[in-house]
Design a protein that fits this description.
5-stranded antiparallel sheet, 8 helices, elongated, 16 strands, 384 residues, alpha+beta
């Protein structure tokens, strides 16, 4: 069945007129000729084919309206607003819209949204510079310290350049972080004492930081001669604090529960010989999981979705599959930008198939993208 709101008013009116004529002829008990039936049938078919579908245009306008100006550069925002004004004007026009015009304006607005540029984020670079400046030269070998100073100088030059691109900022931050990680701890020469010294452990590496229902789960690499590990955490722009000592290589930070908050971690390997240099810092934004409030096969080969909002997210990721285990060959992904955009429609589905659907929020800040845990899976069979 067709839905009036999916089409322009004049194309819908024309189709309804043709439908009324066809219905009247179908209900007539006498006097119908084959020629009349064929003519009325052709007219109704043509009217249906001539319907101008505005669902994609409406969705694009809603997506654009949900975005926040302060999140993007002025030039890209102005270009998107121009495309949005054109799309809104066409959507509000009561007559004369063709499908070609609607598709062209929709494509232009979608392209303008995709072309929005996020302002250059220097948080990671600033943090790396502060970390490097806090180190003490006498703690490290001369060669590795010299390499760090070279990377630090380059990073400071980029940080002072107002025209630096995001790529240049990210590369400078990565280079400086790598130089810090490559520092070699200075070891006092052997004085000839007979007591055997224990070698300080090598640095570990945090391999993952994942949002879970009850906190943030950290995992890091084991170090051969380490007897324990010390976990340090920094919340937002606060200071580093030791929060855990453990012999394990995983830890669930149950205190990291504030939605939208930036958490940073570093881990030290420890033994009798001392403490290793810090691992590279791992950053994650806490995002609480949300859930679907609607997952329904509302029209032909389509599933309508609606979910609860995460006000601190950048957007949402939807996955749907004909496999319960979401195998890669059967799974498709839809990305919805803007945390106020809480609906989408899955299209071109297979009638008679059962689909498994899940969603999670995501947040992007600079080069860091964090994801919430997956929602509970919704199961919908396409009957229409």
């Amino acid at each position: 069945a067709l839905t009036e709101s999916d089409y322009t008013a004049d194309s819908w009116t024309a189709m309804q007129t043709a439908l009324a004529d066809a219905t009247a002829l179908a209900e007539a008990t006498t006097g119908k000729t084959q020629a009349e039936v064929d003519e009325i049938t052709a007219a109704l078919t043509a009217a249906v084919d001539a319907l101008v579908d505005i669902t994609a245009l409406t969705a694009a306008i809603e997506t654009a309206q949900a975005l926040t100006e302060s999140s993007y550069t002025a030039d890209s925002w102005t270009a998107m607003q121009t495309a949005l004004a054109d799309a809104t004007a066409l959507a509000e026009a009561t007559t004369g819209k063709t499908q070609a015009e609607v598709d062209e304006i929709t494509a232009a607005l979608t392209a303008a949204i995709d072309a929005l540029e996020v302002p250059v984020d220097t948080d990671a670079l600033t943090s790396a510079i502060k970390q490097a400046q806090a180190l003490t030269e006498s703690d490290y070998t001369a060669e590795s310290w010299a390499d760090l100073q070279t990377a630090l100088t380059a990073a400071q030059t980029v940080a002072a350049n107002a025209s630096a691109t995001q790529t240049e900022v990210d590369e400078a931050a990565a280079a400086l972080t790598a130089a810090v990680a490559a520092l070699t701890v200075y070891v006092e020469p052997d004085t000839g004492t007979s007591e055997e010294k224990v070698t300080t452990p090598a640095a570990t590496k945090i391999t993952s930081a994942i949002n879970r229902a009850k906190g943030v789960k950290l995992t890091w690499n084991a170090v051969d001669n380490a007897t324990s590990y010390q976990v340090y955490r920094k919340i937002g722009s606060g200071s580093w604090k030791k929060v855990k000592t453990t012999s394990s290589t995983t830890w669930l930070d149950t205190a990291a529960m504030k939605n939208g908050t930036k958490y940073q971690y570093k881990v030290y390997a420890v033994n009798e010989g001392g403490k290793s240099k810090a691992s590279a810092t791992k950053t994650i934004y806490r995002l609480t999981a949300k859930h679907f409030t609607r997952a329904k096969n509302v029209s032909s080969k389509k599933i309508s979705l609606k979910w609860t909002r995460n006000t601190r997210a950048t957007g949402y990721v939807i996955q749907y599959s004909t496999s319960k285990s979401f195998t890669s060959s059967t799974t498709k992904t839809v990305k919805v930008k803007g945390n106020k955009n809480l609906t989408t429609t899955l299209k071109n589905l297979k009638k008679g198939k059962t689909y498994y659907i899940r969603m999670r929020a995501y947040k992007t800040s600079g080069s860091v993208t964090s994801y919430a845990g997956w929602s509970k899976v919704k199961t919908v069979k396409v009957k229409k």
